[in-house]
Amino acid sequence: MRISLNWINELVEVKNINVDDLITKMTLGGFEVEEVFELKLEDNLETIIDISTTANRSDSLSIKGIAKEIAALTNQSYNFSNSLRNFFKFETIIKTSLLRNSKLKDCSMFMAVSIENLVNFSSPKWLKNKLLTNGLVPVDNLLDFQNYILIETGYPFEFYDLDQIRAKNLNSELNLYFSFPVDNTSFKANNDSEYNLNKNILILKNNQQILSIGGIIVNQQYAYTKFTKNLLIEGSIFRSQRIRQMSRSLGLRTDRSARYEKGLNTSNYLQSFSRLISLLKISNPNLDCKLEVIGYKKEKVISEINLNYKNILEILGPTEINFNNSSQDLLPNQISEYLSRLDFKFSFNQHDCTWNVKIPSSRLDDIEREIDLIEEIGRLHGFNNFVTRLPKITKIGDEDMSYQTRKKVTACLLNEGLNELIHYTLVNTQDVSDIKIINPLLLDYSKLRSTLLLNILITISENIKQGNRNIEGFEFGHVFSLNSRDMSYSELESLAGVFGGIKTKTTWSTNSTLLSWFEAKGKMESIFKKFNLFPSWKNSRPQKYKNILHPYRTGKFFLNNNKMVGVFGQINPMLAKNLNISSNLYLFEFNFSLLKTVLKNNKLPLYNYYSLYPRIIKDLSIIVDQKISFNKILTVVKANGSKYLVDVQVLDEYIGNPIPQNFRSLCIQLTFQSNNKTLLNSEIETIIKTIQSMLVKKFKIILRL
């Protein structure tokens, strides 16, 4: 938003304030200054400041709002200029007609005024100049007045051609009200686009005529033109949620709807309406005004907030007062001064040093708790004026069971070659079981996920499209479900992952192959074994994984207490085809909350001490009939290898010349080690000879030198 310092100076005395100092105060006060530049209008230079405000400060999105903020930040008085003092006569008439209307739909204020004898649309030169300072090009018609009042007061008003409304209405009396379409209705707006209105679109009607989509855009039939002589001016205060929902539904966003989306209240509504009428009267002194309809709905009323002096000191801390690093606390009279500058009404209890603060209606949207008031005090005093102190840490926090479990599981899965992934909790899926959000910001993030697996698979698909290799990964996250019996929602922490789809060598003697289902199942069992868990399996597929997991290669995990801890299976071939990814991917998803509880109560696995004595490694080369499996040979070797034999590995297998037909050559590596002493080579040779003799006796092997 652009503001002219000359325009601001009409309300707050800022001529004697250095521009850089003003920018610093505004920045520390929560207003981000994007740019400062000078604009030449005729023979005068205007200093323009381009600022952006926080989302919860809708009250500052106008010249009057910014002027009040600058007055509070610079400790200046806020004054109405003489040009703003003469338009309250019509406001008095409005107030006497103001009636509470509980039938208003999604708006807290609804008012319409008919304007007749409108002969001059041209806007004053000073008004055009002020529009230019705000970055708007004047068009010298009614749009200038709409834009100006929006910039000055922050309230959007809509104009209609009153003659067109009367011409298409047999009943000359206006009957204005808000409603929803009964059936899908076609609506052509003044932007030459046609929209289909569903039953959730709020519309303004006069009898059976649809004048506009509430708070967004006017019906083309009733939009004003350069030939308009009589106007209907409508001003309403809509719920921001309703306007956002309608804008997304229609795919339409206007300057008016954008202002409603940020939130409005009725604090200065009547003054703004009166101000608009007074501007039109400048070039139309014989203007006739008639109040057609007015009503309001009671807005939220915040109770008085108690502000405690101790809480202020505890949160804000002491302030710096000199260059010797000495400091002192804020004084109660300083706090009272800041509350006055913010236009907060309050009473001070000197006995217990507390304030009872009444919040002005313009700040009801962002001041709701004591901490909000403390933030305002810090903002006016300047957060940079408080002493920065790091807390003295006497004890480092303990790792709770949840963190310990997560750390162990993460380390285990990383060691298995999986990468940790992170995705958004909000998704956009066709699954009817996913929970819809009432007021999503974007269609792509309109539901709460019921499983982590879909996002992981989409990430794999996107990486493959970009030419990256297949990803093996896992993710911790929260999933949500709806209990259809009592319509209650539940949230669980889940652990999910994917692996496979990459050719690997499982043994040294085979070619690289894709992981089979049984090998993948064994990998999952080995991961559980590392946590001293031995789950049971059941061949079944839960309903929510129907479109994700393979119908016949899916199983459930059950722990000792017969509680299902999760599922494991191969990807559904149809889903793999749709995502253009490998069908040899294996997926798992566990209830991490349940897994955490089981691990907490599980006995700790036992570990053997590492031997301090050296190993002796011997190779044994034999020729054996191919019909004899290596497992049989291994059994004999282990049975005769004594307690010192700790490992047996196959180093080499060879078939062909000069090995006899139907025989194979094996080279077996034997590792010996003791936990109590250093082994002698002579001891090991004796054991080797025993093993050789037993292999010759059992399998008639041929020893190779």
UniProtKB/TrEMBL annotation:
Cell location: Plastid, Chloroplast
GO cellular component assignments: chloroplast; phenylalanine-tRNA ligase complex
InterPro entries noted in UniProt: aa-tRNA-synth_II/BPL/LPL (IPR045864), B3/B4_tRNA-bd (IPR005146), DNA-bd_dom_put_sf (IPR009061), Fdx_antiC-bd (IPR005121), Fdx_antiC-bd_sf (IPR036690), Phe-tRNA-ligase_IIc_bsu (IPR045060), Phe-tRNA-ligase_IIc_bsu_bact (IPR004532), Phe-tRNA_synthase-like_B3/B4 (IPR020825)
Keyword Lyase in record: no
Domain FDX-ACB: 611-704
Record carries keyword Signal: no
Pfam families in the record: B3_4, B5, FDX-ACB, tRNA_synthFbeta
EC number: 6.1.1.20
Annotated binding of Mg(2+), by residue: 366, 372, 375-376
Cofactor note: Binds 2 magnesium ions per tetramer.
GO terms for biological process, alphabetical: phenylalanyl-tRNA aminoacylation
GO molecular function ontology, one term from the record: phenylalanine-tRNA ligase activity
Catalysed reaction, written as an equation: tRNA(Phe) + L-phenylalanine + ATP = L-phenylalanyl-tRNA(Phe) + AMP + diphosphate + H(+)
Gene3D superfamilies per record: 3.30.56.10, Bira Bifunctional Protein, Domain 2, Ferrodoxin-fold anticodon-binding domain, Phenylalanyl-trna Synthetase, Chain B, domain 3
All residue ranges annotated as the B5 domain in the record: 300-388
Keywords: Aminoacyl-tRNA synthetase, ATP-binding, Chloroplast, Ligase, Magnesium, Metal-binding, Nucleotide-binding, Plastid, Protein biosynthesis
Reported cofactor(s): Mg(2+)
PANTHER family named in the record: PHENYLALANINE--TRNA LIGASE BETA SUBUNIT, PHENYLALANYL-TRNA SYNTHETASE BETA CHAIN AND LEUCINE-RICH REPEAT-CONTAINING PROTEIN 47
Subunit and partners: Tetramer of two alpha and two beta subunits.
Family in the record: Belongs to the phenylalanyl-tRNA synthetase beta subunit family. Type 1 subfamily.
Matches recorded under NCBIfam families: pheT_bact
Protein name: Phenylalanine--tRNA ligase beta subunit, chloroplastic
Originating species: Coscinodiscus granii
